[in-house]
Each structure stands twice: as C-alpha cells, then as structure tokens.
Design the sequence.
C-alpha cells in the first residue's frame, strides 16, 4: 500500500531530523509514530478485553510475535 502525506514544512523537517537522529529512514520513523498513535487510541479496546488483530508491515513476523508477547504480558500484569 502506498500512502501520500501532505505535511507542513515544519513537520517534514521534524520527521527528517528524527529519522537522522535514530539512524532510520523517514518512512520507518513515520510508521513508528503512526503505530504509536494507533496504540494510544486502541488502548481502551485492549483494556476491555476486545480481540484485536496484530499486524506488522513488510512481513515482519518476528516483530508481530514480539508485539503479541508484550500484549500477553501486559494483560497478565493487569490481571494480577
């Protein structure tokens, strides 16, 4: 999937600087930020016990597995 973003020059510069500091591509940093925003919005669903699909871009199966383990651990800690 391709996504075109129309960003302000300030936001574009922020993303470029953030990517450079982290040694990542601007696409990776943007994706991380997007996923962080989605996680914040979905936190209520997770806390309610809703079933959520876990996906990872670019067939990153190890990353998806890690995300599932973190969610399981978080759920276990909440149940204690």
Sequence:
């Amino acid at each position: 999937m391709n996504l075109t973003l129309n960003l302000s020059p300030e936001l574009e510069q922020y993303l470029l600087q953030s990517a450079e500091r982290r040694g990542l591509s601007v696409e990776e940093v943007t994706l991380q930020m997007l996923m962080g925003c989605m996680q914040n919005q979905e936190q209520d669903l997770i806390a309610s016990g809703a079933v959520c699909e876990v996906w990872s871009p670019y067939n990153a199966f190890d990353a998806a597995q890690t995300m599932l383990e973190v969610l399981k651990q978080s759920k276990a800690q909440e149940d204690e």
